[in-house]
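We treat protein structure as text, and this decision shapes the records that our systems exchange. Such a record has a labelled line for the sequence and another for the C-alpha cells. The record that follows is passed on verbatim for readers who wish to inspect the format:
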Amino acid sequence: MYTIESYKQPFWAKSGNFTRGRDPLGIQNSSIAVYSTLLPGMTNLTLRLRYYGFYLWLLDKYHQLPEADIFKQNYTGQYTFIRRAELILAYLMKNKFPNEQSVIGSNFAESHIHQNTNIGYYDIELGADKTKTTEKGSVYWDYTSGALGQYYAGSLINMNLINIKENFFERTEEKGKELAEAYGVSISENCSQLLLKRIKEGKLYSADFEILEDVALNKDVVNTPEGDFYIKMLLNNDGEKSKTALDAVSEQRKESIKLFLWIIQNTKEYKMWVNMPQLSYLMCTISKKEEVSEATYGWYYYYLNEVSHHSLETIFWGLLVEMEFGNYSLQQFLNEITEKVVKNFELKNTVLQDYIEELSSEPTSVSDNLDNISDAVKKNLSVEGICCGVITLLHLYKVNKDNSKDISDYAVNHFLNTKNGNVIDVFERYIRKNQELEFKEFIKKVIHTILNEHNAVAYKKMGDGEKNLLKFLIEDNYLVHIETMEPNFTSPRLKTLFNFTRDLDLVNEEEQLTAAGEIILEQLNNVVV
C-alpha cells in the first residue's frame, strides 16, 4: 500500500521543467528595441569604456603575431589569447584598484588573490584557458570567447570597430585601427611588451602590476588620443544601420548624451539621471514634438512603453496571486475576479470612455500611480494591484492620446512600430477599440486577453526550444497556478552611459559635471541640428 512517504510520481506526471522569465507577456522587447535605438553601441553589460580600447589594442597585437605563432593556428587560439589578457586585467584591477566596479573576472580574481603567495605567481593559463574538458566554473569565464565574445563584440561591431570572420575577431582597418593606435599611445612600451609576454607565458607576478598599471580601466585618458577617440566615437552619428524610414542617419546617441549631461548640470538630486525617461515624458507632454530633440522624444516613447508594460504585468501579477487562493475553472475565475475588481471601483453601468474622461489630466499622476502599484505589490494586495494597473494604463492613454500621431510617426520612422508590446498597439488593443464597452465588460476582456497573451507567448517560446515559462496551466478547463511573478522594468543602459562619462572624467564622484563635461555640453549646445 502506498503512503505519502513512499508515493513516487509516475514519470508522466512529474512537474515540467519550469523556469523563471522576466517577460511573461512577451512585451518587453519593444522597450529594449527603443533604448537600443537611443544608445547604440552600448549595452547593460558593456559597463567600462576602456575595454573598447583594450580589445582593439589586443586584436591589433594579435594581428601582428607571426603566422606560425601558436595563438594563430585556429580561432580557439585567438580566444585563449584574449581570455588570458582579460584575466590578467582582472588580477591587476583587483590588486591595485579593488573598489572598481564592473571588472570582468573580478570574482574569480578575488577568490584566487592569494594564489601568488602560495605558488609565487598567478597561474593565468590554468585560470583562463578553456578546453573541451574544462569544468564549468573552474576558469574565470565560462563563455568560450571570453567576455569579448559574450558581451562586447556586439557593441564593437555596432561602432564599426571590429568584424567577425570565420570565427576570428578582426579590427576594422579604419576606426578599429585608429582606436588600437590611440590606446597604444596611452600605455608605455614596457607595459605593452610585458603584457604580451605574460599572455604567452600564462603566468603573472606581483611585481608586474606597477608596469601594467597603464592598462587599468580607471586610468585618466582625458586629453589623450585615446580619450579624444572615445569622445568622437560617442558623439558621432549612429551609423548607416541607424537610417530612418525618412532615410536620415540618426544622432540619438549624441542627443541622449547631451540630455544626460544637461540633467546632471541642472539638477541637484542624487542619481537624477536615472529618471531621464520620466523627465523626457514630462517634457514631451507639455511640449510639441518639434520643440524637443529626437532622442528626448525617444525617451518619452520608451517611458510610454515601460509604463504600459508595467501596468499589464501588474494586472497579470494580481491574477496569479488570486489563482493561489482557490480552485477555479477558467470561466469562474473570469467572472469572480471581474466582480472583485469592478466592486473595488464602485462603478455601475459606466462606459469605459466616460470613466476615462473623469481621470486626471496631469502627467505627473503617472508617478503616483506607479507608487500605488509598488505599494500594492509589496503588501500582496492582488485586487488593489489589478485596479492600480488598470488606472495607470487608462491614465497614460488619456494624457497622451492627443500625441498619438506624433508617437506613431516616431515609432514608424525608427522601425519600432512592429515590435510586440509597443505602446501604440497596447492602446489600440486594450483601450481604443473597447471604449464603448461597459466598464465591467472591459475589465473582463482585459483579464481574458492577458491570460491568453501569456499562454500564447509561453508556448511560442517553448516551441523555439526554450524552457517552460508558463506561470499557470489550464487542465480540464481548470487553472493550475505555477508561479507568481512581480512586475518589473527594463534597464535602459543609463548606468552604462553614467560609467562612460565617469571613465572620461566628464562627471565626478559627486555626480556633477567636471570642467571637461562642461566643455562638452557647451559644444553640444552650440551645435545646430
In short: The longest helix spans residues 294-323. The beta strands are 122-123, 162-165, 168-171, 203-204, 472-475, 478-481. Residues 40 and 253 are 7 Å apart (CA to CA). The radius of gyration is 27 Å.
